[in-house]
Amino acid sequence: MKTYEVEVRIWLKPSVFDPQGHAVEQALHTLGYAEASDLRIGKYMHLTVQSASLSEAQTRVEEMCERVLSNPVMETYAYTLKEVALS
Amino acid sequence: MKTYEVEVRIWLKPSVFDPQGHAVEQALHTLGYAEASDLRIGKYMHLTVQSASLSEAQTRVEEMCERVLSNPVMETYAYTLKEVALS
Amino acid sequence: MLEPTAAQIRDEKIYRKLGLTDAEYQQVVEKLGRLPNYVEAGIFGVLWSEHCSYKSSKAHLRKFPTTGPQVLQGPGENAGVVDIGDGLAVAFKMESHNHPSAVEPYQGAATGVGGILRDIFTMGARPIAFLDSLRFGSLEDGRTRYLFEQVVAGIGGYGNCVGIPTVGGEVQFSPTYRGNPLVNAMCVGLLKRDEMVTGTATGVGNPVFVVGARTGRDGIHGATFASAEDPHEKERSAVQVGDPFLGKLLMEACLELIASGAVVGIQDMGAAGLTSSSAEMASRAGGGIEMNLDDVPVRESGMTPYEMMLSESQERMLVVLERGREEVAFEIFRRFGLEVANVGRVTDDGRLRLFFRGEVVADMPVAALVDEAPVYERPIADWKPPVPQFVPTTLAISEAWMQLLAHPSVADKTWVHRQYDTSVRASTVLGPGHDAALVKVPGVNKAVAMATDGNSRYVYLNPRRGGQIAVAEAVRNLAVVGAKPLAITNCLNFGNPEKPEIMRQLSDAIEGMAEACEALGTPVVSGNVSLYNETRGVDIQPTPVVGAIGVMDGIEHRVPSAPKSVLEPTELWVLGREDDSLSGTLYGELVCGGPAGDAPYVNLAQEARLHQLLQQVAGARLVAAAHDVSEGGIAITLTEICIASGIGAEVEVADGADAHGWLFSEAQGRVLVAVTSANADALARLAATFNVPARKMGELTGETLCVKLQGALLVELPLNELVATYEGAIPSFFVAEQLTATH
Amino acid sequence: MKWAVIVFPGSNCDEDAAFAIREVTGDEAHLIWHDARDLSDFDAIVLPGGFSYGDYLRSGAIARFSPVVEAVKREAQKGKLVLGICNGFQVLTESHLLPGALLRNDNLQFRCEMTELVVENNQSPFTADYAIGERIRIPIAHGEGRFVADDTTLAKLQADRRVAFTYHANPNGSVQNIAGILNLQGNVLGLMPHPERAVMEWMDSVDGRRMFLSMHRYMKEARALVGANGSANS
Ligand SMILES: Nc1ncnc2c1ncn2[C@@H]1O[C@H](COP(=O)(O)OP(=O)(O)O)[C@@H](O)[C@H]1O
Ligand SMILES: [Mg+2]
């Protein structure tokens, strides 16, 4: 068994309006950060996954993202895996 | 002026309980993903920033994270910057 | 990290960091007969904190009347309980979460709601409503906007999710709260009068359980910090995140467990978590508790006994079950997917004894922890508020009117309460927007009435009279909708009790409140004290907040604050003694730049008669609406009636009164009623029998608000302009989508 | 008639829905815990409002994996009436019984207020007692009620007349003001507003009554028909 550190990012598809991102961008502008634009807010998750191999871990994480963590109707996701060295 | 693509991740400090992450982890277990653990959910943001230099962009983004995007009382953040090649 | 030894705690005065003074530490040593170890010193520190022990206020709280035929449970339990007839009872309490909300407003407010919710279902009551009483600085200030926005979102975030409607409350804005907002939450629950449970650990050998969330390192020392001088910095490490989903499951599971009859005693883990719940439950029973901390379900590894005992992790309860019926609890909690662990047992030796890894890590007399906690008769100084006399000004009536209407304390609060689920449970008969809320009791034609009130300007100007007014106004709101007032709860938000003038405010305000409770027949059955509300040495204005409860038999008798529609000729009457003094008013604050003069007029005997009259009026269904005169005076009360019913009015200033004064006076004991001309005579006769002055002051008509003085037009304001000002005032501060202002 | 009101951990309008059903139709309403696997005994199913699983991750996202949702799907397939209110609507979209998704309100706030709905389709078992174009008053109480769907889906919804209700004044940014939609067969309705909170005089509106009455009558007629054919309905 190996241990992987997984990071998942999920965000709204570009066609879907992101009111929260919009509001935060506005707030940044009001506070003097005019240089910020195109701000969008999504979710960031990290978790650890026990798996026999990298490829198995990948398959499982992919499945979790697809089935549970994101809703493909309006969201897109990306993830990274990193093996954790045993201490 | 250069354009930077910025990704910000924000999550609850380790000492702060994350009920959402906890509930989602439980759900993953019920759904047969017993290998997942330590799941925590935070925010993921991406934005573009116009700046004269990388170091200036960094200073400004750091400030945005500190003052606006995260709540230092309970959250931690990390960010990455990438210069966008002009097309 | 190694824990300090008992000798180090003494020599390096580490006990000070744990919240004990030098003298208190000496007392601990005497009571124990030895030096306390770190766990013990920590436990004494939190239990003897202001927050848990009420050491500065206890002596004064004794002045409150607490009994009456309707009272089933007075102060001292998790909540007070009153009888509402038909074998039913209502449990209710109010609690503050000021300091946590100043640091992390969303979570501070949310966990405040969660905490008061647990206090209610702990009594075996099904929660049926929340109310919230909020105080902030001025909305011109960015940080205040952020606090306001987040606190409101947090209250909704928790209350909406657990499915209990937030049906009323108040929000006021004054520079005095800039660095120290107030967040007081009240919860009301319903139970069968003979099915009440309490937080008592009786029956030697009965098992003790921790149920709900796991214990983590969050919120350690919240209780001590709530009493520390600069809570802001220190509490940064003590932020707790509420879990309303778990809170809802815990509520359902506990109510089911209580209904099973297996529960001997139950208490929520609020401030000082496991420490206060176990010590207080043992103390009430006059016995002891033994716990094995290895069995406490923890969220993080390596937690020490000190951390477990002081953790303020949310959504946990301590339960004592009847021996042999453990299986009932296991079955219920398993079904809800909740943690349940047998951590100890009830003893009869009067000690709180804790084991960890086979060793006794703490062993203290329960009496010393709870009953013998220090009580301070703190010095009280003579004190007069440093304020000017009210001086009449030349501010034009229409201008004053609009300024008052636009003041966020007076203006429409829809921006706030539309973020709350006000109608879940499908029992809200009157929600936000009326003087009191009415929540229907399922299965019978009966409703519980509830309202909160408290005006710090009055208390600051004249603590005793201000205290009287706080109670009078809250209770009056119940009578206005037609309910019979029963009892009150309260939250006493004051400054630093180590200052003799603050103790004067506290002592006098309590005295005034007590007098009003006596006069109005509404004893105090529960409450909460929050002291050290100060920023950099500057104290807030004294702010006692009152939550009042009443009952209405026959919801068809309810009286809304404005007629829904006006189809017949409708007159406006003022009930109560008319007045034209501007001393102590919001008007006075506007023209003088701060509180000025003395608190407004109040007469408790008149007030009591008015309340009786109002109930009779409702019972006889004489009026279409009733609305009491509060901040901003008759001008504002009238405007609110007109806006809500969409019609103008024509009114006449009382004979011989000063027009400014008559319009903007905040003298207490006045109610405007809308009555059809057909019922007006009957109303006048009824008022006379109660010896309450009643005068027809005008009628609802047209599209403007007209005020006349001896027949001559004094001022005329178009209704649509009034609506725009009233409804636009608070939202206008949020046009720039200031979601995430600076922290 | 026998109604099932599904209770997920975190549902909080389950009692309200059961109360409305009993009060308005006189029918039996049973609260059914989310681990039930068989709903064939019931004539109609209501997925009530609330915060199933705290609405963590996305509203309805975790509830959709409850065993009972499979049973709901089966009964829906058979043509039984399924009504999803608020969180129930969110569960229906997450489990693909209805298209689209419900996102955070565009004003970023929870909104609880009376709304005016426009009846867009009165040919369904849920809406037969309303007039087309009629405005009815039903309260909302949600933070995530912004209906979104891609253009193809929207075009299909419109073409099939599957938009049941729209908001007269859009409170949350829903595309095309959509407040409630039907499935293709017309036996599944999801809507954000709460008809069960508008069934008594003292609730400020009684316009929700007709939804329950219309469902009740539809079921009675369907049963009469089945009875006449002599075939059972499961
Ligand atoms: N924070 C709040 N939460 C819920 N309801 C509120 C809140 N603030 C004000 N309200 C409601 O708005 C109405 C007006 O409040 P307020 O001006 O304080 O009334 P009054 O002057 O009669 O005491 C009341 O019905 C009250 O319940
Ligand atoms: Mg009032």
Describe it for me?
The complex is a heterotetramer, with two copies of chain A (87 residues), one copy of chain C (743 residues) and one copy of chain D (234 residues). By secondary structure, chain A is an alpha+beta fold. Chain A has a domain at 2-15 and 42-83: Mth169, Chain: A. Helices cover 32% and strands 41% of the residues of chain A. Chain A has two helices and three strands; from the N terminus they run βαβαβ. A three-stranded antiparallel beta sheet of chain A has the order 2-1-3. By secondary structure, chain C is α+β, with helices and mostly antiparallel strands. Among the domains of chain C are: 197-372, PurM-like C-terminal domain (Phosphoribosyl-aminoimidazole Synthetase, Chain A, domain 2, Alpha-Beta Complex), CATH 3.90.650.10; 397-733, 60s Ribosomal Protein L30, Chain: A (2-Layer Sandwich). Chain C is built from 26 helices and 28 strands. Chain C has a seven-stranded mixed beta sheet. A seven-stranded mixed beta sheet of chain C has the order 23-25-22-26-24-27-28, sandwiched between helices. In chain C, α7 runs parallel beside α8, α8 (142-162) runs parallel beside α11 (244-259) and α19 runs parallel beside α22. The longest helix of chain C has 21 residues, at 142-162. Chain D is an alpha/beta fold. Chain D has helices at residues 14-25, 67-77, 87-94, 151-159, 209-229; strands at residues 2-7, 28-33, 44-47, 81-85, 101-103, 111-119, 135-142, 146-148, 163-167, 178-182, 188-191. Chain D has a single domain (2-228), classed as Class I glutamine amidotransferase (GATase) domain (Rossmann fold, 3-Layer(aba) Sandwich), CATH 3.40.50.880. Mean pLDDT of chain D is 95; it is low at 230-234. Chain D contains five helices and eleven strands, in the order βαββαβαββββαβββα. In chain D, α1 packs across α5 (209-229). In chain D, strands 2-1-3-4-11-10-9-6-7 form a nine-stranded mixed beta sheet, sandwiched between helices. The radius of gyration of chain D is 16 Å and the shape is globular. Classes of the chains: A alpha+beta (87), C alpha+beta (743), D alpha/beta (234). Chains A and B meet through β1, α1, β2 and α2 of A and β1, α1, β2 and α2 of B. β2 of chain A pairs antiparallel with β2 of chain B, so a sheet runs across the interface. The structure holds adenosine-5'-diphosphate and magnesium ion (MG). Residues 435, 477, 628, 630 of chain C line the site of magnesium ion. Magnesium ion binds at residues 435, 477, 628, 630 of chain C.
